[in-house]
Amino acid sequence: MSLAKALDADQRADALEHLAAGELDVLVVGGGIVGVGAALDAVTRGLKVGLVEQRDLASGTSSRSSKLVHGGLRYLEMFDFALVKEALEERGLLYTRLAPHLVRPVPFLYPLEHAWERPYVGAGVALYDGMAMTGKYDMGVPKHKHVFRKQLARMAPDIRTEKLHGAIRYYDCQVDDARLVMTIARTAANNGAHVATRTKVTGFLREGDRVVGVSARDLEGQRDLEIRAKVVINAAGVWTDEVQDLIGGEAQLDVDASKGIHIVVPKDRIRSECGFITKTEKSVLFVIPWDQFWIIGTTDTAWDYDLAHPAASKTDIDYLLGHVNRLLKDPLDHRDVIGVWAGLRPLLKPMRKEGEMGETTKLSREHTVANPVPGLVLVAGGKLTTYRVMARDAVDHAIRDFDATPASITDRVPLMGAWGFEARTNQRVALSRSSGLDIGVVDHLLGRYGGLVDEVLALIDARPDLGEPLEGAEHYLRAEVLYAVTHEGARHLDDVLARRTRVSIETFDRGITAARPAAELMAGALGWSDAQLEDEVDHYLRRVEAERQSQLMPTDQEADEARVKAPDIV
Ligand SMILES: Cc1cc2nc3c(=O)[nH]c(=O)nc-3n(C[C@H](O)[C@H](O)[C@H](O)COP(=O)(O)OP(=O)(O)OC[C@H]3O[C@@H](n4cnc5c(N)ncnc54)[C@H](O)[C@@H]3O)c2cc1C
Fold first, then answer.
1. In the chain, helix, strand, coil percent, each to 5?
2. How far is the CA of 43 from the centre of ligand 1 (A)?
């Protein structure tokens, strides 16, 4: 059994104590991918680091992406070669070294509607693979391949091939985004970072011009604290403008929110060996294999409502169904939709005048680091895939006035669970025999916990009922709910059903049946009273209902009004 540090209630209490005492080198605001990446980068350079997140880890955009670790084929068309190359290098690094247990290759078909597309798209995909092969790290995934019409019909029998001129198959990678964030946070904590969730920054501490820390509120303990730090890195995603407002004066970054939604349908509704990517008027449509499901996304529209609970409207869902149905022999409809989520892209905008709304699709996905006042670094934009580069750049900026500090080493810091993953995978048959779990279940656990699978198996060994499937979400084990609380920082039912597992988007009832059994498993570990347990279940059911109602609404405004009826539980 490993001695890996757990994110649990004691760790949170300990982190808050350390944050309030003494001076940190770097305090990071925001527990999305960029924030946790910055915390890991800084702490592994030998700095004293804290991180505060106002809600759960990855509760913002970083649990709501398309979950692709990719170069972004479409950015090639925009001639954004540097961005694509950098992202492809990060893809290779994550898949082959940093998180081989979490990142996996996905084959995509790019259907060709016109004969002239074959040389055009073929050249683009060849360039894409070429960039990955000549990058700093291994490419890791197979090369692209031309597919002709008959072969396409065999590979994807449910696709309308009669008007197609074949396809090109290429590979990208995917990851459970929320799990990646939690794993990076845990790796940072394991290296000594003080990570506290449900802790909201409410203001900045100033000495003259300089930011010397933040005032924050521990939302669970209902107490205010001051956290002093030589530098604060703000990685607040679409909340960047709000945090900038706390320092007053001239803002340096203008971050807009662009909404993208996804729907989930059962795997058997589309028979295909590969996912798909096709162009739409504004962007691209992805059909992505995801365990026993397909993820279909995404949209790209400006969002001016609640940042914490972006809502998908009926119009958004209709848009996706309309586009995917152009590809399919047997069209999908609303009854096929198992799960839906909406996320907000933090898009950097050139500074603009008040009241102007711009087209969001054309804004840059690249990141920017700014330094509006001494002691404060802002980082925003970018992609999930390139979090490590953003984090490195932000920390490089933050330490400019420090005495000699080592350069970033995160390209050599495998995330927790990476170590032991290959060995445990080779031992999967033996693990299945010794644990009594089906080999498919062992594979599922390896793909979520990697080398830390031993910790989950130890829970089951001590309490065999935990080796049973979770009622209402049988593709997860009961042990995974408990482990989410004891090792992965989950504090509420929502954290477990929406982020540590993806029950909320992977079951037709959106986790309603699983809610009570999961809450009962959590209650013991978190010391909930009966009333708290009921409150958690009730809150979760209200959240599901609010989301369902919002998805029946034609406009964003009505969808937002329906969704905000179920606020967060703290
Ligand atoms: C629909 C969609 C699809 C996408 N698909 C992909 C993809 O497939 N691949 C890819 O590489 N990228 C993708 N992206 C982009 C990627 O998801 C984002 O760039 C990334 O998740 C942003 O991370 P972040 O850390 O900047 O923001 P967030 O994840 O939003 O994190 C910011 C955090 O700051 C916290 N915070 C805010 N204010 C405070 C405060 N006052 N105190 C404490 N905490 C605070 C918030 O609660 C939040 O958790 C996609 C984005 C969207 C929306």
1. 40, 25, 35
2. 21
